[in-house]
Amino acid sequence: MIGFLVMLAVCTLVAWLVSVYLGRVWGIVIGVLAFIAWSRFNKSEGTTGLFKSNLQSYFHYRRAGQSVDHALQSMVVSRYRFSKRQHFTVSALVSAIPPETPEDQKVITAIYTVFCAEQGDPPPGLESKYISKIRDAYCRMAERHKVPQ
């Protein structure tokens, strides 16, 4: 909430500064456009940040020697440390991923499951975009962390 207020205050300041030099209409237009652009950027970065945060947690537990399934459950526990209801719900969903699923697909599915549990199902067309972002982040982190199989 504080971030939203800061964003609103900065965009209002930008609108005021522009209105001083270019007029009230241009100030309003530039202020609104700045607010929209900043909002879209924050939403995109927030989504990517959620993916990366969960992947970092997963790789932390894998480097510590945990199995894939155990590392995913540890990621869920650390994510929902203060929300037992959310913890049990997401933990059950992650446990439902078939055991024979390859590691990369299992992790991508689990991260996407956490995202949907927190944000709800994405609008049509965005599911593949989000899964692609998770896959890209997973591949970069897997290469960097070189977790033993």
Question: Could you characterize what this model shows?
Answer:
- With 149 residues, the protein is mostly helical.
- The protein has 6 helices and no strands.
- The radius of gyration is 20 Å and the shape is elongated.
- The model has no long low-confidence stretch (mean pLDDT 84).
DSSP strand count: 0
Q: Indicate the radius of gyration in whole angstroms.
A: 20 Å
Low-confidence stretches: none
Outline type? elongated
Mean pLDDT: 84
Roughly what percent helix? over 70%
SS content category? mainly alpha
- Main beta sheet: none
Share in β-strands: under 5%
Helix count, DSSP H or I runs of 4 or more residues: 6
Distance, first to last CA = 42 Å
Order of helices and strands: HHHHHH
Give a quick rundown of the structure:
The chain has 149 residues and is mostly helical. The protein contains six helices and no strands. The protein has a domain at 45-145.
SSE layout and pairings?
Elements: H1 2-22, H2 24-63, H3 68-79, H4 84-95, H5 103-119, H6 126-145
